[in-house]
Amino acid sequence: MFKFLRSRAKIMFWIIIVTFVASIFILWGMNAGGSKSGRNNNEVSTIGSINGIKITGQEWQFYYQNYINRWKQQSQGQPLTANQYVQAGEAVWDMLLKKKLEQVEIEARGLAITDAELKDILVNSPPPELLQQYMDEEGNIDMDLYYSDLHNPEHDWSNVENYIRESTPRTRLMQEISAEAAVTDEEILVEYNKQNSRAVAEYIGVLNSSITIEEEPADSELIAWLNDNSEDYSDPEKVLLEYVKFPKIVSEQDEIEVKALAMETLAEITSGVLSFEEAAAIYSDGPSGETGGDLGTFDRTRMVEPFTEATFALPVGQISEPVKTDFGFHLIEVLEQFKDDEGEISEVHARHILFEIGVSQETLSDIYDTADLFVEAARKNGFATAAAEADSMEIISPKSVRSGWDIPGFRNTAYGTRFAFWAPDGEISEVYETETDYYVIHVLEHLPEGVAKLEDVRAQVIRAVNESAKAKLAADKLAPAITAIQNGKSLADAAEEFDITYAVTDTFTATGNIADVGYNTDFNTMALDSEVGEFVTDVTTNRGVFALSVTWAEPFDEILFEVEKENVRNNLLAIAQQEIIEQWYETQLDNADIKDNRFEIFYAKR
Known about the structure:
Layout: H1 3-6, H2 8-18, H3 21-26, E1 48-50, E2 53-55, H4 57-74, H5 82-109, H6 115-124, H7 128-131, H8 143-150, H9 158-177, H10 185-196, E3 199-207, H11 219-228, E4 234-235, E5 238-247, H12 252-270, H13 276-283, E6 294-299, H14 305-312, E7 323-325, E8 328-339, E9 345-355, H15 361-381, H16 383-389, E10 401-402, H17 414-422, E11 432-433, E12 437-447, E13 450-451, H18 454-486, H19 491-498, E14 501-504, E15 513-514, E16 518-519, H20 522-528, E17 535-541, E18 544-553, H21 558-590, E19 594-596, H22 598-603
Antiparallel strand pairs: 1-2, 1-19, 3-14, 3-18, 4-13, 5-10, 5-12, 6-9, 7-8, 8-9, 11-12, 15-16, 17-18
Helix pairs in contact: 2-9, 2-21, 4-5, 10-21, 11-18, 15-16, 18-19
């Protein structure tokens, strides 16, 4: 009965297929929510297609909202950023494209399950995601409880059955696609040695950090390097844009309303309706509200200046009028005063109620309406004219932006840059928002991909040219020492004679860090592939140029290898299967006719 659960390969396939869908299944019946666009996605019958197969607004909204809900649960109460909503949308779109491809392939291969197969799965090999709901505190699965539910006629299993009817054919498809994956004995041995081999080596070397380049390379040298290494400096498609911002700032009315709330609370306390502690627990926005507003004892240096001035001027037992600081308005009561030897108040014990001044929904609505009116004016009269007429609003002109990146200098604006890449030159966006601003984009020009211009990558090219020059100088400096060692001198003596680095490593592995040499470098690999006492030259890392000799290597453990061999094989096989599956998806998507209308339908001009 537990054969399915014990099969690591099958579990791997379940993980591949159901990582996302399982979160929906486990939530059993979660309903899809609304759209930030202000338009109900369910009203749109088709938002795109792949090879003529439609993707509906209803299924898009269902998966998208469940993805967002799951992300919110994982964020432990932290609000999602604007960019995270963009990332969620891209993940769900990618999932739906793959889902449609899978459905076609499943039908073509005849991989759908029968009712009898469905029953057998429920009885003999239920999905791990299902059994997790029957796990006790010790991590044991209560199969008796599971079978009790399974045979309970009042228990609705339709969601589970639908899930299995969908996921099992996918599992079979992935198994068929990756069936050609194989692992050789040689690959197993190499991977085992990579994981388990250890050695100690002595080495000589010249560190790049010890070499100084006196002059910056000339532009001709930089251009030559850029031309010779153009593949390393490809410039993807970019967009030039400009934008205006409408900050989400507190209005005068917001401040008035918060101060009025503070005054009403003060009246409730002074009239005896509430005690200070009760009012703090109800109204205070600060963490001290849980302790009746108590701030403990403090001197004049601990609090911000307006708070300190008010507190140290307040008599014991008297509650202040609302005191404004950068944090908001405070009602303050001094409980005790402590004086120094000269009779001056040096410390106080006080409590407060904090009323934070936030941007109200009314203010946000007003700011949005202002931005929306700007959009209307900009589309009618031009972007620059609308900005000039809006109290000379600043137009911000950043550097060109890459797809999927934020606007330079403006965080959480990947949504706006997606618009810029979708829209033609000259287009003006809707009002978009970040956590701190509303903003409107004007698309200026789409820049095709190509080799980057030197002025855009000058710093990177200079660094690369200098590192190349240092490596050559390091190799030249190391060469006489290598010759001396080959003629019989020890590594330590050669290093001393030619004033270069000499060291003996700690015990290291193939992926470990070696002081001055680097982490997981060719040094590790070349050392572990050599024999004890063999002199290995021309070992280059990003830290310098080295030569080495292994002084100790852990002997190969045949018994341990036989014990670990199958685990290594399974891990390598899982990786090989995953690579084949990903390649299948990539090939299918590359050759597919994909129509993505999401942006045009939901987020273009109204």
